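Bumping with the actual sequence this time:
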Amino acid sequence: MLFILNPINFTLTQEELFNTPEARAQAEKSKKKARKTAAKLKPSAEVWAVINGLEYLTEETIEILKQRGQEWHDKWPIGEPHYKSDEDGYQFVIHSNQVAEMYKCRIRKAQEMLAAVRLAIGKDEGSFVSVKEFCFIHKEDEEDFRRALRSIQQDFSIDSKKRPPKEK
């Protein structure tokens, strides 16, 4: 993949671009934010989900998530490339209902998993989590995960702010 920086045929490969001083400075800034947000992760009283050996949410898992959040910014110092392809059903972000169906858990637990990913990589509350970020943090094979996602319908109505109050 080539990136054209100016019209004088000066091009950089993705690797060269990601290793520029500006990209490395951005990575350090992002890693600092990730460390700050990941500090908000607190262990739960009991394990409520296990994904590829990560027990949600033990102290050991929190440390692993923090480390993987830092590794994410080393791999993508200026952010993840955004691809667009309508033909193959490429999906950029993952939704809580898809996480719930994929791991056979309740929506609330799926939302907590996505929140943990956000905190680990330094994203703001309510930000979308990309499939690539989710797979990287959980060490899932991205292509296999995307194939499985194609059979799960996205449900945008699952939002706690829009949900009607529970009847007593």
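The tokens above came from a reply further down the thread. The CA atoms of residues 91 and 146 lie 8 Å apart.
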